[in-house]
Amino acid sequence: xxxxxxxxxxxxxxxxxxxxxxxxxxxxxxxxxxxxxxxxxxxxxxxxxxxxxxxxxxxxxxxxxxxxxxxxxxxxxxxxxxxxxxxxxxxxxxxxxxxxxxxxxxxxxxxxxxxxxxxxxxxxx
Length: 125
Fold this sequence. Notes:
Order of helices and strands: EEEHHEEEHH
Largest sheet: 3 strands, antiparallel
Number of helices: 4
Strand order of the largest sheet: 1-2-3
């Protein structure tokens, strides 16, 4: 499994830059990482479908910590800080970015949600 050779967070663009030992490199937005968090809060507790995260367009990374020699613990400014992003998972998120992002956008549309944090979600009773 490739391991990171570079990890750099660009605060202004809110992107995590990752370069791996296999020569691949990726810039992943904080929003993309947040909505694909490996935590149980997002992945669900044994559920088939992950819990849809929405309104995360403006989320930023507050802190990044190494977790052993295998993962990063990423804390986001919306208070989410559970779940470890393993090297393997980060590589998967990078190499499958276009597909995973489109699946996310399609699901938002299907469920009537938005990426925007300033839009108030109104539910009909």
